[in-house]
Design goal:
Number of helices: 5
Strand content: under 5%
Structural class: mainly alpha
Radius of gyration: 16 Å
Largest sheet: none
Length: 138
């Protein structure tokens, strides 16, 4: 069964989110275990160091995913990819929070009262816009 343009856009958003989430999970573990606990860097400073690294990775991988999934340069398809990536990223973050920290949805949403979580959310929103800008002819 051939893939439709919509299927490719949704698949690209999901694959993009999965790759970036995996990378962010590893860098977050490194930040938490090594820098915050062993070196003594505050969580906010650690996040400010980690966030540009994750966004750089996302910028680089976004082009590869869009090309690999052959998402057309149509604005609607790109917006669908963006929305899928953001929803998948937030769902993965909530799932990890529920699994590791035992948080329910209200607790998870309440965590956004902290500056670190707000900066993380801002980074996720920036990450989700990259498919709009990372296009080159197939």
């Amino acid at each position: 069964m051939p893939y439709t343009n919509l299927t490719r856009a949704i698949g690209a958003g999901a694959a993009y989110a999965a790759m970036v989430f995996g990378f962010a999970f590893v860098t977050g573990a490194i930040r938490t275990i090594i820098t915050s606990q062993r070196i003594g860097i505050t969580p906010l400073i650690g996040l400010l160091i980690e966030l540009p690294v994750i966004l750089f990775f996302a910028w680089r991988v976004c082009h590869s995913i869009m090309r690999w999934m052959r998402v057309l340069p149509d604005l609607g398809l790109r917006l669908l990819t963006c929305a899928t990536a953001l929803i998948a990223m937030l769902a993965a973050e909530f799932g990890l929070s529920a699994f590791v920290l035992g948080r329910n949805l209200p607790d998870f949403l309440a965590s956004y009262a902290h500056l670190e979580a707000q900066l993380g959310l801002a980074g996720q929103i920036v990450f989700a816009t990259f498919p709009l800008f990372r296009w080159r002819p197939l």
